[in-house]
Amino acid sequence: MVEQLLLGSSLGLSLCGMAWLALAMDVHWRQLHPEQPLRPATARRLRWSGASALLVSLACCLTAEHPSMAALVWVMAATLAALLVTFTLAYRPRWLAFLAR
Amino acid sequence: MLGSFRLSMTWLHTWFGLVLGFVLMVVFFFGSLSVFDREIDRWATPSSRFEPQPMPSYDAMLAPLFAQLTPEADELAAAQARLGRPLEASLPVKNYGAYTTHRDPVLELYAEFAVDNPEDPDDHVHGHVTIDPRSGEVLPHELKLGSEFFYPMHLGLHLDWHFIGYYLVGFAALVMLVALVSGVVVHRKLWRELFTFRPGKNLQRSSLDLHNLTGVLALPFHFMFPLTGLIIFAGLHFPVTDTMYEPLARAYEQGEVRAKGLPVAPAGIPAELASVDAMVAVAKQRWRARGMPGQVGYLTVTHVGDANSYVSIFRAGSDRVTLVGQGVHFSGVSGELLHEEPPAPAAASVKDFLVGLHLQHFEHWLLRWLYVLGGLSGCVCIGTGLVFFVNKRKHQHARRGVSGARWVDALAVTAITGMLVATLAILVANRLLPAELEQRGEWEKRSFWLTWALSLSHACWRSAPVRRAELSPAWREQCWAIAGLGSAAVLLNWLTTGDHLLDTLAAGYWPVAGFDLVLLATAGIAAATARKLGKRARDPSARLASHAPAALDDAEPEAAHG
Quick one: CA torsion of B81, B87, B90, B92, rounded to 10 degrees? Predict the structure, then answer.
């Protein structure tokens, strides 16, 4: 049960992490805030949040299982998250608005 | 060559990708299906729809079943042709083996029978049966669709003659690695377009977006799987142990067996086998003592019925990636422990890890699904590569009156939608063919190949519009075929077995429920795609589904990729 929770959080964190990394890019930021240019400080903050979320996601995987398995799950979960973020940005970018503040 | 490094890489990526792309499409698709090969077996063999079972008692159940095994008729015929003379009426048995995994309700038993061949002292033929380990009942021979048809398709395309399919798949894997490296070189905006997909733009642009997206985001998967696949078959591609290093390799093998204290040859003195169940108990105790308790995955008896017989017991992989069996070997006659395999040295452990990563004997459903995601994203990457190739050239070919794009498009239809149609056709055939049909499995295979051939003819026949730079209607029509066959497979599963989705979901029987859901999702996506393509065909000027927001639409000029 604890393992499932940890893996679930790891997936969620990967999703947030990838979304923040995407939103730190001008072209995707403008999808949500067409009027408001992305300030360098905001971009930096988003990038750091993204990277930290991915790291915590790795930590969750490592706590949940054997390191060899954890590494594979983390890499593949990050792939899934990045694909989901891309398709959300393509079809329903507003869904990510809560992450772009 | 070709002016610049980037241009020569583009040439390499385009043409090798095109030629081997068709093979790679098959390998990635059937590889994705093989992740759930045992579950597909359950769907296709309704008599085996029960929970996975541990290895049953050897002494009580397996010993009499092994004793009844006889060589397969086709292997006997092949051995006779090989030797050029009739074989003895009964061949002496050499070895027994039983194999199971944490996903197998049924158990596979095999025996090796010695064939007297002066040129090859190891020559042998096999006999095998599948049993229900709950009762010991022998199940009828049926084609295991997942593990005996889809999985070998992934490995060697069913082109068994001189291993040609295996070599082709190996070469395709090498080309995949080359395509990844050259693709990264060719890609002008790898970081800037990391999360970019513009479905509202023209087909050339959006297919290139998807190609780049799936290629880059799943890059670790796309790189590791061809690589580890090549490592698994390194012995086939570099057969040095059978050629230049043969004496060394044989000496090493013998030395290894001697170091383990295992008899290399039978003594020629008949002897009874001691209790194997007692040996299994000792092996399990040894695994527990090493901190890796587990179940038996693989059990063999070597030199059956001889004073030199020995029993090897391997642990079923389940809790880690590395493929290790923690083999424990016992004397067959006295039952005493002969050898317990120590942890592998560093180089071998790296190899075990890489092989285990590919073969996935572990018990981890999330990771299994993530592997399917990786495999299917590989299919999307290769498929959109083919679509991009056609769409980049079709206007130019139409102006010049060349038909190259037309034929590549027909082949792409066959490799993408045609492969799905054929796969669904074999599932439908599996449910429709009468149970008592002679060689039922062969008919199932024929339905697969025949359907695929039909889809090729259909794709060629309908491809004329590509000459005018229009979309081939074959795409849409085969999408409808997928939608029809996918829903038919689910319906037929219900009608022929009574296991409908509400039942299997309520019972939590995921092998069948999950596969039915995947079939329905496939049918749904295919129907939606077909409708969209139909709309586009009726009104070619209409821009479809312009969801893409302004920020992404006013992007850069067309890439000079491919």
Answer: -80
User: What is residue A98's three-state secondary structure?
Assistant: helix
Min Cα separation A90/chain B (Å): 6
Residue B335 vs residues B59, B64, B91, B312, B331: alpha-carbon distances, Å:
13, 19, 26, 11, 5
Long-range (24+ apart) CB contacts under 8 A made by B491-496 are B492/B428, B492/B431, B492/B432, B493/B43, B493/B431, B495/B431, B496/B46, B496/B431
The rounded distance, in Å, linking the Cα atoms of B171 and B135 is 45
Do A57 and A14 form a contact (C-beta atoms < 8 A)? yes
- Measured between CA atoms, the residue of chain B closest to residue A8 is B366
Q: How far apart are alpha carbons B215 and A74 in whole angstroms?
A: 18
What is the interface pTM, i.e. ipTM, of the complex? 0.95
Chain B positions touching A28 (Cβ under 8 A) are 195, 551
Cα A82 to chain centroid, rounded: 7
Which residues, including other chains, have CB under 8 Å from residue A101's CB and lie 6 or more apart? Answer: none
Shortest CA distance to B555 belongs to which of B188, B194, B201, B187?
B201
- Chain-centroid distance, C-alpha B439: 23
Predicted confidence at residue B540, as pLDDT, reads 62
B372 three-state secondary structure: helix
A contacts of B198 (beta carbons < 8 Å): 90
Mean pLDDT of A8-23: 96
Q: What's the pTM value of the predicted model, to 2 decimals? A: 0.92
Cross-chain Cβ contact B374/A79 below 8 Å: yes
> To 10 degrees, what angle do helices B219-232 and B164-186 make?
150
CA A12 from chain center: how many Å? 8
The alpha carbon of B502 is separated from its chain's Cα centroid by a whole number of angstroms, namely 29
A57 touches chain B (CB under 8 A): no
Amino acid letter, B87: L
User: Are B274 and B334 a contacting pair, CB within 8 Å?
Assistant: yes
Give residue-wise pLDDT tens across range B482-511: 999 999 999 999 999 999 999 999 999 999
DSSP-assigned states of every residue in A20-71: HHHHTSHHHHHHH-SSS---HHHHHHHHHHHHHHHHHHHHHHHHHS-HHHHH
Measured between CA atoms, the residue of chain B closest to residue A83 is B217
**Distance, first Cα to last Cα, chain A:** 34
Chain A within 8 Å of B550 (Cβ-Cβ)?
A: yes
Instruction: Using a CB–CB cutoff of 8 Å, tell me whether A27 touches chain B.
Output: yes
Report the Cα B167 to chain-centroid distance in Å: 15
Amino acid identity for residue B526 in this structure: A
